[in-house]
Design goal:
The complex is a heterodimer of chains A (111) and B (114). With 111 residues, chain A is mostly beta strands. Chain A is built from no helices and 11 strands. In chain A, 0% of the residues lie in helices and 59% in strands. In chain A, strands 2, 4, 5, 9, 10 and 11 form a 6-stranded mixed sheet that branches. Chain A is globular. Classes of the chains: A mainly beta (111), B mainly beta (114). Chains A and B meet through strand 4, strand 5, strand 9 and strand 10 of A and strand 4, strand 5, strand 9 and strand 10 of B.
Chain lengths: 111, 114
């Protein structure tokens, strides 16, 4: 099956710092989503981004589908950004397939 | 945006009992629903995929007789953990999808089996 690798596995930042999270995937995809899982377990959908670049406030994401990777940028990090960030993909040419998740990046932002 | 409601959010029960978890799409018709399980400090692992009116497709290693999935309508899917044991304790998350639209996730159910 498709492999989804996220890096780094853990990231510790001071408040105000910027960071880049990476997601590599092993096959062509037609769906890629970035999520933030908060301490209560809720998955917050950050971006639906099978290709291109999107921005939402301090967050932005870029997916280069031809090179099979996606990047999530967090600028001016805040303590509320702490949690686990997941990248999840679904295979192309298979309608209705489920998202497959990477192992996540655990972000800790301290004040 | 699309909302998926999952209930209960937390359940504790005795070993040997059955537990039902509901997943509802509130403002869209979920042609496909998915069930995931997440153990502490780990990622989400897909358990099964269900299309409305059809039998669920289970991932390898997931016991279909233990984890009963019903998707009787375009807005409701249920997961029943039968004869639950402590090793079934986990965080279960459902999601719904309309066609090729993004998947939308419920808030999850923490299941603790004593």
């Amino acid at each position: 099956g498709i492999q989804v690798e996220q890096s780094p596995p853990d990231l510790i930042l001071q408040e105000g710092a910027n960071s880049t999270l990476r997601c590599n995937f092993s096959d062509s995809v037609n769906n890629l989503q970035w999520f933030h899982q908060n301490p209560w377990g809720q998955l917050i959908n950050l971006f639906y981004i099978p290709s291109g670049t999107k921005q939402n406030g301090r967050l932005s994401a870029t997916t280069v589908a031809t090179e099979r990777y996606s990047l999530l940028y967090i600028s001016s990090s805040q303590t509320t950004d702490s949690g686990v960030y997941f990248c999840a993909v679904a295979l192309a040419n298979q309608a209705g397939t489920a998202l497959i998740f990477g192992k996540g990046t655990t972000l800790s932002v301290s004040s | 945006g699309a909302v998926v409601s999952q209930h209960p959010s937390w359940v504790i029960c005795k070993s040997g009992t059955s537990v039902k978890i509901e997943c509802r799409s509130l403002d869209f018709q979920a042609t496909t629903m998915f069930w995931y399980r997440q153990f502490p400090k780990q990622s989400l692992m897909l358990m099964a995929t269900s299309n409305e009116g059809s039998k669920a497709t289970y991932e390898q290693g997931v016991e279909k007789d233990k984890f009963l999935i019903n998707h009787a309508s375009l807005t409701l899917s249920t997961l029943t953990v039968t004869s639950a044991h402590p090793e079934d304790s986990s965080f279960y998350i459902c999601s719904g999808r309309a066609g090729d639209q993004p998947q939308h996730f419920g808030d999850g159910t923490r299941l603790s089996i004593l």
